[in-house]
From TrEMBL:
The keyword Ion transport does not apply. Gene3D superfamilies: 2.40.100.20. The keyword Cell membrane does not apply. Residues 44-64 are annotated as: Disordered. This is Cyclophilin-like domain-containing protein. Keywords: Signal. It comes from the Bacteria. Residues 44-56 have a biased composition (Polar residues). InterPro entries: Cyclophilin-like, Cyclophilin-like_dom_sf. Residues 74-177 form the Cyclophilin-like domain. Residues 1-22 form the signal peptide.
Length: 194
């Protein structure tokens, strides 16, 4: 991905350098106003394309960077869900904090959040689209569990995703929610008596 960005940046730099030449002493032909407008639009479109590609590649990479061993049981009242954590430092640091039971506050009718006492290693990136079941970190210490899908301009560190989040919204309800997080292996140990 860095190579793609570097090539596009070099191309944009080349285009911007070409548009600054004038016929006075440079030997280059005059650029008409229409040609300059086309070059500006090309640069703008290329920059938007790079941003969109970067967002999509980040999301695709996160979905393939799932640790099968880092599965978290999420208990909300009588409902149980599983979060599969992504393979990144923030998700690993969160897993080390478990088990946790948190009283998560409501925000905007689409998320529950909780501010931790300590920071996690944040690597925030613009996510573009939030999906029902996304589990993210806002800033360095705010856990966010989304239960609706929407577009956003905010940046988050992706921690993981709830498997089969169809019942998540109903389980969370409209106000604050008490949510327990436990590693799946801890849950198995509790039931087997180990």
């Amino acid at each position: 991905m860095r190579k793609v960005i570097a090539v596009v940046c070099a191309f944009l730099l080349f285009l911007s350098a070409c548009s600054t030449f004038s016929a006075t002493g440079s030997g280059a032909a005059d650029v008409s106003a229409d040609e300059a407008l086309v070059m500006d639009e090309t640069r703008s479109t290329a920059a938007e394309s790079v941003k969109s590609t970067a967002l999509n590649e980040t999301r695709d990479r996160e979905e393939t960077d799932i640790r099968n061993t880092d599965r978290v049981n999420v208990q909300i009242g009588n409902e149980s869900f599983t979060i599969i954590l992504y393979d990144n430092d923030a998700a690993a640091a969160f897993a080390e904090m478990l088990p946790l039971t948190l009283d998560m506050s409501e925000l905007n009718g689409n998320e529950k959040y909780f501010y931790l006492d300590s920071d996690l290693p944040a690597m925030a990136e613009p996510v573009g689209d939030i999906r029902n079941g996304d589990f993210m970190l806002y800033g360095a210490n705010c856990l966010v569990l989304f239960y609706d899908s929407f577009s956003t301009g905010y940046s988050y560190t992706s921690l993981g995703r709830v498997e089969n989040p169809e019942r998540l919204s109903a389980a969370l309800g409209s106000g604050a929610a008490v949510i327990s997080f436990r590693k799946i292996d801890e849950c198995a140990e509790r039931h087997t008596g180990k």
